[in-house]
Structure formats: structure tokens, C-alpha cells
Amino acid sequence: MHKSQAKITQLMKRTMTIGLLGAVLAVAVGFISTNAISATPFLMAGNEFSPIESAYMIGHVEYTVRGADGQVKQYAQGDNLIVERGKDCAAQMIFDNSSSTACTITSGTTGFNFIAIGNATGAVSGDELQLDFDTLVNTGEIDRTPGTVTIDASGTDTIATITTTTPFAFTSISSTTVQQSGLFDDGIPVSGNMFAMRDALAIPVTSADTLAVTWKITLQ
User: Fold this and answer.
1) Distance between CA atoms of 157 and 150, rounded to whole angstroms?
2) What b/e readout covers 110-147, taking b as 16+ CB neighbours within 10 angstroms?
3) 217: left (phi over 0), alpha (psi -120 to 50) or beta
4) Residue 6 CA to chain centroid, in angstroms?
């Protein structure tokens, strides 16, 4: 082979080798770059705290009105508002029931197992402490009664059910409209701490009627 042809052949081989190395290097750099970008979230996620499932509470209330014959006259249900004082008291009862920093807990309380009803029409807000009262038209809390508590912990959610042990009776009044209900830790009217509240019920009752209330608090 002529010397010039040999040099050309060697030059071509060298060029092909450089090109091949360049292609391999380009692929490698691209691979590293791609993995560097996509790896960042994984590395960050590995260093972050894992999310912890937190429990929260949902309240639901049912109302059943029966006439003098015992037949159901009206049934209503709806969700409620768990007020700020209720959340404060719940946290204190769980973590430090000897303190009164967040909530003054009545001595000897057995928990939020008293149900109250009222006929005032004020709007409910998260900072309510009692059922609304209007002195101009003499409306407010009508009655308060103890409830029977059952706790179902069999499923994923825990459900506390508070049902009026004895339904509300209205023998002392001819008629009224129940507009509000509340869940308390004290059996004395207009007293104690309120856990949850519901308004705008618009449930008419007469002196011959009874009203049963069932409150369900679900912890998820």
C-alpha cells in the first residue's frame, strides 16, 4: 500500500474513533444530566418528613319529632359546626385535664354529653360559647338534657354517638320553633362549655310533641 494511502486510512480510523468517543461521551453526559434533574425531587423527598395522617372531627345531628300518638311528625338531619371552645376543651381534656389554660372544665364533668335546644335565630359563628339569646323577643335556650353515649371503635373511624336519654317535651309551652341545638359538658342551662352547634333548624313543635336528638361525632 502506498504511504499516502496508509496515512489516509489511519486518519480515517482516528477520526471514526474520536467521533465514536464523542457520541458515547454525549450520551453519558445526557444520561447523567437527566438523572441529576430527575433525582433531585427523590433526594429532597428522602430528606423531608413523611406526611403523618392527622385525625379530625366531623359532627352530624338528627332530629325526630313525634306527636301525642307516638308517630313521627318530622325528621331532619344535618352537619354541625364544631366551635373553637369545643376544640380547645377537647385538646385540654386529652392532654392536660388538670389545666384551665385553654378551657375551664367543670369539676367532675363526664364529657360533652348534654344536648341543649333553643329557639333563637342568630347566625352561628366559630366563637360561639352558648346558644344565642334574644331578650327582645325572649328567645334562647329552651331546655337541656343528658344524653346516652356510645362509642364505636370497630372500624377505621371512631364514632361517638350522643342520644337524648329522654326526648325533649314541651308541655310548658303551647308551641315554638326549635332553631338551634348544642352539645355541652354541663347539664345546667346557659352554663358549661359548648363543643358543637347547629342552627337554622326550623322545627315547629307543640305542647303535645317530643323531640329526640342524636349527635354523632366522627373522628377520622
Assistant:
1) 14
2) ebbbbbbbbbbbbebeeebebbbeeeeeebbbbebbeb
3) beta
4) 84
Domain extents in the chain: 1-52, 57-219
Report the greatest alpha carbon distance in the chain: 127
Q: pLDDT digit of tens for each residue in the chain (220 aa)? A: 544 444 444 544 444 444 433 443 343 434 333 333 333 333 333 344 444 554 588 899 999 999 999 999 999 999 998 999 999 988 888 888 777 788 887 666 788 999 999 998 876 778 888 898 776 556 789 999 999 999 999 989 999 999 999 999 999 889 999 999 999 999 888 889 999 999 989 999 999 999 999 999 999 8
3-state secondary structure of 151: strand
